[in-house]
Amino acid sequence: MHGAHRAGDRTYFVIDLAKTIGKFATATALAGLCASAAFGQQEAGQIMASDALNIPEDISLLQPGDPNSRSATATVNGQIITRTDVEQRVALILAANETESVPEDELNRLRMQVFRNLIDETIQIQEAAAQEMPVSRDEVDQTYNRLATQRFGRTPEEMATYLQSIGSAPQSLKRQIEGELAWNRLLSRNVAPFVNVSTEEVNELMERLKASKGTAEYRIGEIYLSATPTTRAQVSANAQQIVDQLKQGGSFVAYARQYSESSTASAGGDLGWIRLEQLQNPQLESVVRGLQPGQLAGPIEIPGGFDILYLIDKRQIGMADPRDAIVSLKQISIEFPKGTTQQAASERANEFAAAMEQITSCGQAESAAQPFNADVVSNEGLAIRALPEALQTMLLDLDVGRTTPPFGSLDEGVRVLLLCGREAAQADAGPNFDELMAQLEDDRVNKRAQRYLRDLRRDAVIEYK
């Protein structure tokens, strides 16, 4: 699994072109800037649904120093990486992830990861130049300008001002762009053309998928931390600390982006929908099989490091999932004036609930809402899966024209959802031949990319200050 899912051991980026290897398209990679992971998209879907309906959701090497310090922390084949380079990149990451404050121990770990990324970045830029295909300044500027306007809605000048305001600088982002473009170029010429997947391999995989119809398929999030015999104890401790913080409510997507050494880090650790055999590790298979959606497992020691796994979801292959049904809803909500007592609010909520129970069709929403001066908001084409889990359960059993039980609080008000229509979920036909071919090719490119970067690191002259 891990070789197939790692491209160069890069861990946490504001933008990520290299991790989209197999596609080799800058525009595609730029679309990943500050975007949610695949299961982060699931989380984002929930947030969007909640917004639409206003539904609430329940080492010393790199110590902080003078942000203008130009002292070297390392030289890579004679090229200096300074403390300022590290701090500006850290500031960029924190801002992109809307992180206001980070505990000092986490911040130091992030500095170390950024430091390693900068070393890899420098090696990649140097290798592209050595192979006479450097990234030009014009290419970097064009990408930077497109990024500023398309993703941030700013002019290049405004983008520069913004980056400086957060403690970063345009040259920091441009350096990262140059590194990603250089790596993308190296892979597209030196790796991708030598990856071959036969028609027989794809057909065999399609037959296995057909035979697996009705069996369980899992959507898994992964945080992978590599370890050697020398670093095993420290990595194990770091992994346990991440698990503890996740159990206290930390975002798996954010931690995967920040700490995972899998190429899925930019996607929040999401491995996508897979069968357990694809994990290629009986121990991991057993662990995942015992999980329920929303549960966390780890750290699990595996060859080469440690895994932290999160079961995002589970379904039956080739079978329709009721939660994929598309519904049309109306939300009817009341608010309590400031100063309303708990008793008064409870009485009004009970009256509201009784009236809502009398609704038998979607057309009655406005008239039923009027006596309570309630707001009515419509939402069309919403997947049940995009709603909070508690509401999913309610809607799965709800008849069209009826309302959910009321929910809310004194501060947030009380609301119900009225089901106006439901479009039955369709079974997923699964990937077609071309999609499977692309998946297998990408997996092999990822494996070779990891070896390629490992060789470049081995041959580089890196001096630490």
TrEMBL record:
SUPFAM superfamilies: FKBP-like, Triger factor/SurA peptide-binding domain-like
Record keywords, A-Z: Isomerase, Rotamase, Signal
PANTHER family: CHAPERONE SURA
Database matches in Pfam families: Rotamase (PF00639), SurA_N_3 (PF13624)
Record-given protein name: Parvulin-like PPIase
Molecular-function GO terms, alphabetical: peptidyl-prolyl cis-trans isomerase activity
UniProt xrefs under Gene3D superfamilies: 3.10.50.40, Porin chaperone SurA, peptide-binding domain
Gene: surA
Residue ranges occupied by any PpiC domain in the UniProt entry: 215-313
